[in-house]
Amino acid sequence: MDKITLLDTDLLQNEKLFREVIYWKNFFRAQLGWHYVLDLIWKLEKIDLLDLPKGSLIIDAGAGYGLMQYILAGRGFNIISVDFAPRKITWPKSWIFPMKMMNDEKFDDEYIRFLKDKSTSKRFKILLNEVKKTVLNYNFKLINQALKRKDHGTIFYYQANFKSLKDISSDSVDAIVSTSSVEHVRDLNDLKIAIAEFIRVLKKDRPMLITTSAAKDSSWFFEPAEGWCFSEADLTSIFQLKNPESNHKEYERIYQNIFNNDYLKKNIPRHYFKSPKGGLPYGKWDPKYIPVGIEKWKN
Fold it and tell me: What is the span of the domain harbouring residue 18?
């Protein structure tokens, strides 16, 4: 069944998946978005229900250097890591996972230019400096633990626009995941084309599991994060959902749970405090939207 699920704080009570997310977060010393722990746990719960065998092929759409692809590869899945931004294969990722480049294309887009903006790039330089400072003190115990895993999946970096996954065959992918990425497609007609392309490459009776940003009422564009906050009606239309099960009527209650959650408030990533860009400008705890999970099945 297709579903629209506003992500509630009860996801943090899944201790097994919470520990898995935090393990890889600590491993890569990752600075996650303010709600990403909720996003990742929700998707991992759904992946568990699929009971996919190791070696299954999963697309991570808009993956960048995000954590989801590495968690899934650590479980033994093969990952096509799709992003239109250029990336390089670097350590320690290349120590832990077999990694390959699928192609080398160039794209220009408003969101790429947003990432190159001075105030935004400053935020990423801060992150880079933090990584450099920790290299000599890297947790080699975690590296040794990861290296002992002999069944890691392969990660393929694929530089592509969501609208044209031309190197991926139809009906070939076991699942598609995406973490807080699709809202950055400014043209909603382009996003609809991208969702149709996701459906094309999925195998029959397989899902896409996408987290994005939900608005309480009508859709609106959140300039500091350069991304959409979607209404329930637009989520249904854009993702071609068929009579979706939804908890959107609980928006206010779930927002209050998020707003009052001590874990989320106390773990705001440091980079937010240095920039007016992003989901929490200057680190002020004042969320403007709720993370939402979209479960769309190919019939």
Answer: 3-297
